[in-house]
């Protein structure tokens, strides 16, 4: 394979990687920001989160727990994931929380929507980079080059 073809293949691989990574990061950010926004604006069920499993080797990291809503008519969430920072982090500790769409948030959302928006912004920046790379390639391939 000659050097020019190798360079074109490498550039194409970089463009595809930037596109895929940008889309994944954008969608992950939006998926994290939307429920965080809803919780920050009053959505979800208030209740108590009890830590049932800690992260090994991480002193204050919550892995999962049980969320019990204040409203007894609402179902409890077992093995719920925490989206944010709760004061309870040790096995058996409890903390006020909000349950929303199968996840548990600190009251007020703890800035989950801002972190999701920042992640979505990074994905959007990657997509803008991809657009620039594609347009640059097209403009350089449209330029007529004299034979050497």
Summarize the structure.
This protein is an alpha+beta fold. The chain folds into two domains: about 1-40 and about 110-140; about 45-105.
Domain module tally:
2
Question: Which spans of ≥5 residues are poorly predicted at pLDDT below 50?
Answer: none
Oligomer: single chain
Topology order in helix (H) and strand (E) letters = HEEEEEH
| Number of DSSP E strands | 5
Set down the secondary structure blueprint.
Elements: H1 3-40, E1 45-54, E2 62-69, E3 77-82, E4 94-100, E5 103-105, H2 112-142
Parallel strand pairs: 3-5
Antiparallel strand pairs: 1-2, 1-4, 2-3, 4-5
Transmembrane segments: 12-34, 116-135
Keywords: Membrane, Transmembrane, Transmembrane helix
């Amino acid at each position: 394979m000659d050097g020019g073809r190798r360079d074109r293949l490498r550039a194409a691989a970089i463009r595809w990687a930037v596109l895929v990574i940008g889309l994944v990061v954008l969608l992950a950010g939006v998926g994290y920001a939307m429920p965080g926004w809803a919780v920050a604006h009053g959505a979800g069920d208030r209740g108590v989160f009890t830590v049932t499993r800690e992260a090994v080797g991480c002193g204050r990291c919550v892995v999962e727990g049980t969320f019990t809503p204040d409203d007894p008519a609402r179902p409890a969430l077992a093995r719920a994931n925490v989206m944010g920072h709760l004061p309870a982090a040790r096995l058996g500790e409890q903390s006020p929380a909000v349950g929303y769409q199968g996840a548990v948030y600190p009251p007020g959302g703890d800035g989950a929507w801002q972190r999701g928006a920042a992640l979505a912004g990074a994905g959007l920046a990657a997509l803008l980079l991809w657009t620039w790379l594609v347009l640059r390639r097209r403009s350089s391939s449209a330029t007529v080059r004299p034979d050497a």
